Amino acid sequence: MKSARRDNPVPPAETESLDRVLWILPAALCVGFVVYLEKAWPMENLGFCAVLGLTAFSGILAALIAGREWRARFLSNISRWPILSFIAFALYALARWSVMDVKSAGTEWVCGLLWMSVAIAAGVTVSTLAETSRPGGNENLLLYVRRFFIVIAILSAAHAFYQYFIGWERTLATLNQAGSGLDAGIAHALREKRVSGRLGNPNLFAAQLSMLAVFCVGSLNRRERPACRVSGAAGWLALAAALVLTASRGGMLTFALVTILGLAAAGIAPRNRRPLLCAFLAMATIAPVAAQGLIERIGNITTVRERLFYWDIAARIWGENPIFGGGPGRFALLYSQLKSPMARESQYAHSWLMQTGADLGLIGVVLYSIFWLGIAWMAWRAVRSERFWPLLALVALALNGLFEFTLQWRAFLVPAGLFAGLACGAGPLPASRLACARGIAAALLAACALLAASYISIPWQTAIRYEWVSRESQQDPAQAADALATASLWQPRDSSFVLNEARARMALRQDDLAASLLDRAARLNPYSAAVPAVRARLLIARNQPAGALNQIDKALDLYPSNLAYRMIKARLLISLNRIPEARDILESIERDKLPMYPEDRDDLDKLRVSCGLKPIGRPR
Q: What is the C-alpha separation between 453 and 445, in angstroms, rounded?
């Protein structure tokens, strides 16, 4: 049979036509990748998620029922031991999450891991298609993927320059208008003139730029076309300048590390010293500019201290259940009670290692570490091939994720899965492992079907979408209330839907219904400080300051260092004419050095003046 194939090759014209058809799928995935980074929640990207899910579903189904060649290649690719480790990790996280009493805090991460599994299967499908169509096709496909991301790198850097030099004043003016709806942390970064791209967070944007820098460095070899080499060098320089504008130390460090690794890999190729020397000269040129911003940021140890706070709390939570962890979202549930007064709010441990230990224990740490060590091992083995560059992009995410919350953020989980799947080109699989690989493929197929079924419900889509929109506007609380009520029927154990519906009912002046919803939310999530805080606002609206004071005290018991709750309590004490107690609360805010934004300081000064205290004023 093998000799027959050699004697009857596929005609070149037919092969080229087949390749043209096959390029449509990776092109759609690459374009969807960019859109996904801009709007990272799957409910806002149903088109891309549909393409992703259908690709994975089709590939796995074909691997189960198609011909021997396709099945062998697909099962070989998806059965690499790092991929198996990640699939085991995602399933373990899902199982651990399913037995938790409070599931809402870990829902986002678990769903992200499941989508990453689907993305891996989709990437393997595309990789297998390319390998099956023509020998060497996988290398050719990854070559075009690398070139595509050079273009994306240049566009991302251009957006950073636009945001800094052109759009900043306009955005700041919009921010200063009432009801701008921007997150306080994003607003603070904007006031510091740190570019954040479309991700909204400067540190996450810096991680994206570092990841894209890998593909620019990959173009600096003599085998590449001159136009691509020039584009890669220009893209690398543009990314370096954009990183300075983010003022992200972690991003700069990751950028430097992956650049050095990439240049070392490029230098391995023979007769490739000239671009290597040019790249080092470029780094020497940009280094003084980058160092200025880096030294300025290092001089402010606030963010370093924040990381130590996060990791200390994660270690304490991990110590409570060292083997199995507290379950996905456990860090987010307990952080507000355990954090230092000087630490800022956070839902993440800012390290995939510490987050995994706190939420999933030693079992999760081992499984997840095997995946990332396996990616590094695969990169080492593929250093002379095109598969090296998407693998190095994954290494960049892993390095950045050691001190940032990159790998808890859904925007990067799907791209990470796609890169892992695209880069998994393996040799033939031993017959003894085929049955195991076939079972894994069947499990992934079932997971894809379950994910597809969970997103069919239009009311749930509407509810989740409106929950996101309602963070910026409450112009239609009636629609929000109805959508969130429907969502509660589909997700009866998710307290966030119930709490948001209570807020919407309060806006509609349906106080009795809001009160019953708050009781239900408290039963679903007894760790939530937001529930008694919202109940306090309801009692304030009912002109019951004594009852509101009792509820805000409960909120402070659960979240003792929350600035907003302390200020609410101070207002209530002032309304009850208990000025000395209000003064003590306001002085404790300054004494505990609670982190605050400029607008918070303005409100605090107004309260201090009403209590006879001197205003603090904004720091110079």
A: 12
